[in-house]
Amino acid sequence: MTVADYALEELNKEKTFGGVGKTKDRDVPRIDMSDFENRKKEIANQLWAAATEIGFFQLVGHGIPQSQIDDAFEMTARFFDLAEEVKAQYPLGKGTNAGWEYKAQVRPSTGTADQKESYQITLPRMENLWPAGEELSGFKAEMLAFERANWALGMKVLSCFALKLGFAPDFFTNAHDPLSPEYQSTLRLIHYLPMVDAKPEDFEGWRAGAHTDFDCLTLLHQKTGQGGLQLCPGKESSELEWTDVEPLDGVITCNIGDMLMRWSDDQLQSTLHRVRMPKAEEYQGSRYSMPFFCQANKDAMIEGPNGKYGPITAHDYLQQRIAANFAK
Ligand SMILES: O=C(O)CCC(=O)C(=O)O
Ligand SMILES: [Fe+2]
């Protein structure tokens, strides 16, 4: 399949965004989630402002203990340290968002493979994909708990968008029901490859090429000192201006995905982002990140309050996007 064949309009836009572009400082709104039940209205207003303007925001006071995030990062590093033959026993199945891949994700924006390996956890599809206990003791239990903690936080944020969109409070929670076999939210563990004996041309590619996410909402855990994420609001402007987002402990960087943009009749913005290579003077080692993608269950019907687009199931919507992003 060539890029010209991509079925959805987002993809045809995306393939034009592979260039280096300029940089520009912007503030990413920081939103305090503490005392959520009492402050929900105020938090919802802040989330709405951020999501309709820049499409990115950072959560603090979010309730996921830093020790749990640190432990998940440590487990992630141990997973990627496993021998290649071991990881290869848990391969990513095409269109499943479950299992391990090595440099298999090709972005429409660049046409080249991301310089990374990843392991995806999508709960109903994990049969035979968990490393055995003797290979990585405690991995499954820790990742299941971490997956659920992210889900719960994601549902809090989405309940605020439900409020603003005029949906029932649990509208998105029901659409992301983890007890359903149709559940397809994904915890992804990523290892961006270290630069070893880097030559000038090694600094030119992308750790992750420019893209928008195709889910509803992404919660991204990053490690202090392992930067590289850049965002670029406003897909329509001709000159692209990219903003560095610094990773910080205690902060979860979030963005709106295409699915929620469509579900909100394009009010909430799914913003272009990428992970650049380190510069010559920056840290060159491995970079780890852990995004959690809130993707509505396969059978959820995506239909905005004003009916701007026709209804489509989340399954049909996602399959088109996944097929376009994984070459193998
Ligand atoms: O690793 C990061 O900082 C960003 C990852 C990302 O954008 C993605 O996996 O969709
Ligand atoms: Fe992304």
Write up this protein.
- The chain is an alpha+beta fold and 328 residues long.
- The protein has helices at residues 9-14, 36-53, 66-81, 84-87, 139-165, 171-175, 258-263, 314-325, and strands at residues 22-23, 30-32, 56-60, 99-102, 116-121, 186-192, 206-211, 217-222, 229-232, 241-244, 252-256, 272-276, 287-294, 301-302, 312-313.
- It has one domain: Jelly Rolls (Sandwich), CATH 2.60.120.330.
- The strands form 3 sheets. It has an 8-stranded mixed beta sheet with strand order 2-3-11-8-13-6-5-4. A 5-stranded mixed beta sheet has the order 1-10-9-12-7, with no helix packed on it.
- Helix 2 (36-53) links the parallel strand 2 and strand 3 (56-60).
- It binds 2-oxoglutaric acid (AKG) and fe (ii) ion.
- 2-oxoglutaric acid (AKG) binds next to strand 6, strand 8, strand 12 and strand 13.
Computed over alpha carbons, the radius of gyration is 19 Å
**Structural class of the secondary structure composition?**
alpha+beta
Average pLDDT metric: 91
CATH H level: which superfamily?
B-lactam Antibiotic, Isopenicillin N Synthase, Chain
Distance between the termini: 12 Å
> Which architecture name does CATH use?
Sandwich
Q: What series of H and E elements makes up the topology?
A: HEEHEHHEEHHEEEEEEHEEEEH
Listed once per kind, the bound small molecules are:
2-oxoglutaric acid, fe (ii) ion
Assess the beta-strand content as a share of residues. Answer: 15-25%
Q: How can the largest sheet be summarized?
A: 8 strands, mixed
